[in-house]
Amino acid sequence: MTPGLPNHDVRFTQVASGARIAWARSGRAGAPVMIRTGHWLTHVEYDLRSPMWRPLIERLGRQVELIRYDLRGCGLSGADDVPLSLQTFVEELSVVVAARGAPRFALLGMSGGVAAAVAYAAQHPDRVSHLVLHAGATHGLMHRQVPPDTLAFHEAQLRLIELGWGRRDPGVQQMFTSRFMPDASVEQMSSCNEHQRMSCDGTRAAAILRATDANDVRELARAVRVPTLVLHSEGDLAMPLILGHELAAAIPNARFVVMQTRNHIPVEPEPAFERMCQLITAFVTESAAPPALTPAERALAALVGQGLDNLQITAQLGLAEKTVRNRLSALYGKLGVEGRAMAVVRVRELGL
Asked: Are strands 65-69 and 20-27 parallel, antiparallel or unpaired?
């Protein structure tokens, strides 16, 4: 039996329908919090026995507190009758955010979890410190101009998932594994086949993929105002590289890095795995240290953290209102925030 991870624990919250959502916490206590958005192939317990997911969880956990969760109807999460959509994906993320309770955190969206991460970051810039996206797209197949035979082939695959996903015969699962992980080891492929069966049944898997096909976050991507890193595998057969280009181009000032691998998500021990982990952890932790503030800036930050408005700060410091506005603008720049609401959260997070 595979041993558990240090500091790993599983908890539960619930969405509006009452369905339970399983979430897990592991990694370095006191480090920056990073929440990995849910996608179609997770199981917060079985992940720890997977040669595909466990190395990633362990590696990221050296430098961050990693939060993971299962989508409704997957892994340890309960199912309901609510039609799946971008809204349900964001709802699941939102209840996990509330359950964890971190004032600010990084978001890691991988594969089908990219859309929910983009949507949440666009809607809650005061909560998200960093956004990392890997192997995703701005919009799904249903919003693209594709030939009829491509759509027919895709629908045939979904039907195959519905009928064959839960069977112990690995033939159906292997068809998808070989497309998503062509360069994985035999052990990793076998584990991925089992992971598909363990995560959810065929009906739920097909429903998740159909909902992902209907996602469209193009407008939301343009509204993202948090530091963003976009990664994409060069030879990804499931998600062509051009989709990564589109995603990075849609988000203002996003950094884009190509991973030298054919696997949808790099796996250990290929060099792209360690490269991906280094990029993610360096990006998420680079701004974690408190900024260097002068005594005057620290005094100003303390008043901001108390929730005082400009006139109240003017009275407290005995300065002209214009001077206070200028000093606030400079302070926001050092804190890496835009606007008063984000500044209040950041100041309180830093204990200023």
From this structure: antiparallel
